[in-house]
Amino acid sequence: MLVLLAIVGFVVIVGIVAIAIYNSLISTLKQVENAWAQIDVQLKRRADLIPNLVETVKGYAKFEKGVLEGVTKARSALMSAKGPKDAANAENMLSGALKSLFAVAEAYPTLKANENFKALQEELSSTENKVAFARQFYNDMVMKWNTMILTFPNNLFAGLFGMNKEKEFFQVTEEEKKTVKVDFSGM
Amino acid sequence: MPAMDFYKQISDNKRMTILLFLAFFILIGVLAGIISLLLGGLNIYGFTYFTVFGILIILFAIISYYSCDSIVTFVSGAKEADRQKFNQLYNIVEEMCIASGLPKPRVFVIGDSAINAFATGRDPQHAVVCVTTGCLSRLNREELQGVIAHELSHVKNYDIRTMTIATVLVGIAVLLSDLILRFAFYSKGNSDSKDGRLFIVLIIVAVILAALTPLIANLIKLAVSRKREFMADAGSAEMTRNPLALASALEKISKDTEPLEAANKATAHLYISDPLKNNKGLWLKGMFSTHPPVSERISLLKGIKY
Question: What is the Cα–Cα distance from B166 to B225, expressed in whole angstroms?
């Protein structure tokens, strides 16, 4: 009788732990997915802003044609990109093209003074930042997920639930790989 | 000091909130008791007064918990920022929310040329971030980003709840003690047959009021340890990955000698840097300062490595 009770107790405890781990795994997985979706949202926002920018800049007839074409081409490359690697390449291309556009715009005082252009410049640089921060957050979440499924006792259950696959970091640069460290030992 | 732990800070803050509430109820209970004694004496009338006061205070506490953000922004003279007019500010707040995974807070602006900022609210879902117009005109985009990230770290660590509740509770206590002082003077003017008993009560009131002021100061200090500001600076660096921008913002703030007009002693500890510019008196400054020295914060930020 006592042995039976002990077995039942053990099973119940393991069951509760399994449920708790399953729930935290699922909620973290959703956070990772949500972070990934956020990158797409920001990329789409930027792509939507570009035709406006091109329209505004085109009015200044002398403006370099090549620069505008570069931006338009990078945008369509981004729109047709398949998979994270492709998208990352197109995205870098677009960032470069935009950078050269704004650099060239420096030489056109009337364009620089244009309210519409200034507003677009702020929108685009903010969206650039949002894309970068969305990626940073995605990588933070991936790190959280990877740490979670590899640490004990989660690793025992993660395999059981078929959720033991590590996620891939988005274009990991050396800078993004490391976390912030603060040393307060001197205080 | 050991390496910081943000989760420990969050649970410390939740425990601190409960402690604050307990300390508050004892303090307020004593104050309400004194007022009841003054009004009704030690009998059924006094007890009735005490009950009525108790119910009013509990109601007030509940209302302040749910509307502390509106109270603090109202007291500071802050107005909700217009989405069109303050487009860049909204953009920066959105960027930092993406970086931290926080929901978007409401954004407020104070029309004052001093450089300062604060955050308030009861949790990340009901948060307010507020900056001065001086912040917008005198800081560059990256510096402003660092300041906003610092405020959002306060939101993320639940500092806003502890700090705002401390503000409201201290406010109630000060209000009640002020009320007692007024009653005491009023009763003294009309002293009649109850003279003897009233005199004793007045002495008690005087003693308690004398004891009250340092207690309130300590309550604020407990709630606003220096660690909180350092943690928010580090949290800001974690969001922006650009600690030097916040360091340069703090440098600009420390060189700014203009006090923030809308700030007072009750709200001073909410701001990113001391808005009252208390720089006089060396030992006094150390005892009553609500903020760690800016130079210390800057050198820590510059030491953050990736």
Answer: 12
Are residues B102 and B152 in contact, defined by beta-carbon separation less than 8 angstroms? Answer: yes
Nearest chain A Cα to B232, which residue? A182
For residues A151, A154, A159, A163, the Cα torsion angle rounded to the nearest 10 degrees is -100
Q: Does the pTM exceed 0.80?
A: no
Average pLDDT, integer, range B155-160: 89
Comparing B87 with A171, the larger pLDDT belongs to B87
Cβ distance of B92 and A136 shorter than 8 Å: no
Give the span between the Cα atoms of B166 and B160, in whole angstroms. 10
Cβ neighbors of B3 (< 8 A, separation 6 or more) are: A181, A182, A183, A184
- What is the rounded CA–CA span in Å between residue B26 and residue B29? 5
Give A133's contacts in chain B (Cβ within 8 Å).
95-96, 98-99, 239
CA A78 – CA A87 distance, rounded (Å): 6
The answer to whether A184 contacts B87, with C-beta atoms less than 8 Å apart, is: no
What tokens does A95 get?
Answer: 């960032």
Give the chain A residue whose CA is nearest to the CA of B237: A180
- CA dist B168 and A63 (Å) reads 58
φ, ψ for residue B118, nearest 5 deg: -150, 165
Query: Which residue of B4, B87, B98 to mutate against A (max A Cβ within 10 Å)?
Result: B98
A137 and chain B in contact, CB less than 8 A: yes
The whole-chain average pLDDT of chain B stands at 78
Residue B131: strand, helix, or coil: strand
Decide: B31 and B173 in contact? Cβ < 8 Å. yes
> In chain A, which residue's Cα lies nearest the Cα of B84?
A119
